[in-house]
Task: structure prediction
Amino acid sequence: MHERCLDQNLPDLVQRIHDQLLPGLRLHSADPHDPVRVLSLRQPWRSLGSGNYAAVLNHPHHPDLVVKVYAPGRAGWEQEAEVYRRIGTHPSFTQCFHVGEGYLVLGRLHGTTFYDCLRKGIPIPPGAIADIDAGLAYAVSRGLHGNDVHGRNVMVHQERGLIADISDFLEPQPCRAWQDLRWAYHTVYRPLIAPLGLRVPGPVLDGVRRSYRLYRRLRAWGEAAGPPARLG
Ligand SMILES: Nc1ncnc2c1ncn2[C@@H]1O[C@H](COP(=O)(O)OP(=O)(O)OP(=O)(O)O)[C@@H](O)[C@H]1O
Ligand SMILES: [Mg+2]
Result:
């Protein structure tokens, strides 16, 4: 898009996206709170992960680039492109190299999401938390908001923390996701999960994710209702 792309073959990738990937791709997003399902994908494309809005795909001839394709009916690719434009270059983030209708070409991050670290028992070092804090402070300095920074949107790579998904950073309303995740890291992960090397099964993590969403909704209602009326 605006940065120099390390992959000299970016035009080839864009051609492949239009000739092979998009015509053979079927994405299904039943609910905006659950990950997009990849129903069909042409060889040799591979899926690297899905969020609630988009799937992230990779072609073996372009190992350092990914294509983030938004599911039908899920908006946001233009806003995400704008966020990457404002972020520019910073070690906590990847870069956007091309924007097409409904998709972005991003630099590939070779890390593991916090969510997968918990599932697989991969350590999350405290320095990764500090890196993400630094990345978020930088984003704020660029007029952005650290929104929706949850366990599937942050990664660890070689002990460093990365923010993999900045699609909601134009949203100005306050979001406590990262604050709460950081709290859970210091209160539950460091004293309990890390020393015992525990692996947390996916269904348990999904249960925590759903409970947390409910908790956030209840808290938002509580805040909207204001303090309880004084008795007497
Ligand atoms: N640049 C990247 N390199 C490698 N893998 C990535 C990259 N970006 C995202 N991923 C993987 O794809 C998954 C989905 O991507 P992403 O979080 O950007 O989608 P989303 O639909 O915007 O998510 P959300 O539900 O948080 O809005 C991530 O959890 C991560 O596993
Ligand atoms: Mg995400």
